[in-house]
Amino acid sequence: MNQPRKPRIAVVFGGRSSEHGISCVTAGSVLAAIDREKYDVVPVGIATDGRWVLEADDASRLAITGSTLPEVDASRSMVALLGAAGSTDLVVTDAAQVPETLGAVDVVFPLLHGPWGEDGTLQGMLEMAGVRYVGSGVLASAVGMDKAYMKIVLEAAGLPVTPGITVTRREWQVDQVSAIARVEALGYPSFSKPARGGSSIGISKIHDRGEIVEAVELALQYDAKVLVEVAVVGGREVECGVLATTDGAPETSRPAEVRTGGEHEFYDFEAKYLADQHTEIDLPADLPPEVEQELRAHAVRAFEALSCEGLARVDFFVLPDHTLIINELNTMPGFTPTSMFPQMWAASGVSYPELVDRLITLALERDTGLR
């Protein structure tokens, strides 16, 4: 009697965004944690030029080495998702060989950060192909990626956000004087960031008028739309994880506080990902019980306001009087065992392998299409 086939999970990582390397690091952690007795696993890398390749199933190759980030090996055989009768197959399409079918894909675990992956583009492709996948759908992914629109949606849902403006590349080229005046009207200090970026890449803290041009132009290197926000002076940076459940009621983790020191004025890329950067984590965050309860309730409201699915990390500022302000929501947060999202769930009783398995199980139980 034939044994039932194990569900096949395609772990997709890399991508064309500036967060390519962080995506690879995340994938290495997930590949090491997936239960191979329960699932067949196929690593699929997206190179920086957009090619899909069949990557090596080697988690150790995808680790950070010192300050060097890993990347997808673009020289490997190309792979494609092709529709078949009743399923979607992974097919190796190496030009030097006859196409080889690897078999049906049951779930895609998209571990892409940033545009062309976390922003609804990949999710839309998978919806068209009828392939189940981990995480939020097209709308939530797109809104979650675009921090300017995210603020509009959260504010419409009655949630507190930081004041801010957007500056487009066209406005900067056509009327830079007016754009600078609008930034200056926010007051100082403020933060300039790519509106559709992540991992703190391209962010600058603006202390005075003389820093505006450099800050905006840095952000424009990564995105054609820049978000400039008022700095929340005295605000503590506290994060909270949200997980969907099979009955549809999201659960929240214990929140954690991030404190940066040394030369870091804010939680930048080096403080997040590179060793010895004077970053300290308080887990759980030192909050009065009623404030923690309110923060976790706000996290669920934000998750539902964006129509998120699967998982999200909601980042807050907590003011000295315990007023809460939502900084942003990430639909595919950093996902290594040392990242904030898994750490918060570990402190809440869900281990890293259990977290990975739970997300795959949720995806297997969810249909594609309107839901």
From TrEMBL:
What keywords tag this UniProt record?
ATP-binding, Cell shape, Cell wall biogenesis/degradation, Cytoplasm, Ligase, Magnesium, Manganese, Metal-binding, Nucleotide-binding, Peptidoglycan synthesis
The family database entries (InterPro entries) matched by this protein are listed as: ATP-grasp, ATP_grasp_subdomain_1, D-Ala_lig_Van_CS, D_ala_D_ala, Dala_Dala_lig_C, Dala_Dala_lig_N, PreATP-grasp_dom_sf
Q: Where in this chain does the record put each ATP-grasp domain?
A: 151-361
Instruction: Tell me which Gene Ontology terms the entry assigns under biological process.
Output: cell wall organization; peptidoglycan biosynthetic process; regulation of cell shape
Q: Which reaction does it catalyse?
A: 2 D-alanine + ATP = D-alanyl-D-alanine + ADP + phosphate + H(+)
Look at the named UniProt entry and state the broad enzyme category this protein falls under.
Answer: ligase
Task: Fetch the SUPFAM superfamilies from UniProt.
Answer: Glutathione synthetase ATP-binding domain-like, PreATP-grasp domain
Tell me which domain of life the UniProt entry assigns to the organism this sequence originates from.
Bacteria
The EC number on file is 6.3.2.4
| Biological role | Cell wall formation.
Protein known as: D-alanine--D-alanine ligase
Q: What taxonomic classification does the UniProt entry list for its organism? A: Bacteria, Bacillati, Actinomycetota, Actinomycetes, Propionibacteriales
